[in-house]
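tool=predict chain=A
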Amino acid sequence: MSIAFLLTTLIVVATPGTGVVYTLSAGLSRGRAASVVAAFGCTLGIVPHLVATITGLAALMHASPVAFRVLQYLGVAYLLFMAWAALRDKGTLSVEERAAPRSAARTIASGVLINILNPKLTMFFLAFLPQFARTGQEMLWLGGVFMLLTFLVFAAYGVGAASLRDQVISRPRVMAWLGRLFAASFVALGLRLAFTDL
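tool=predict ok
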């Protein structure tokens, strides 16, 4: 495992995207434990993309514009749904002092969907991993490192957001603006995904 791989991975993982926004919202709305669970869900969502890359399915999807577009538009639709959830102040994105319990399974499922429905991850692995690995076993190992770093960075984002939760809850105007900010972030990410080409 090279320094170049680790540095590139850290840059990619730390750059705010859908998973980071989701984990931040979970930390603010539900606290530290929920943010870690959300980070775990986002990390699990990487597995199908890694498997697709190792087995060659990613190359097939890259060669099939129809398959890419279907996954792409499903991802856009889900991001727009998350934006709507942020605006209506329900679900994971609500920030309330006594938020209704949300099961770990639902939090994980949302995180998994966010990453599964992002075809850019498959394209990234298809272009990224072969530069550092020659065999499927090496790709699996490096993919595992990528997932570990993803979990640690996302969890750090979420726990950091959770540490601000009390200050946010005590300020209704800040809460309202945060909901709009999360909604705008998901819309922007959805638009960026919509205009992504193979």
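The mean pLDDT is 78. Residues 49 and 122 are 5 Å apart (CA to CA).
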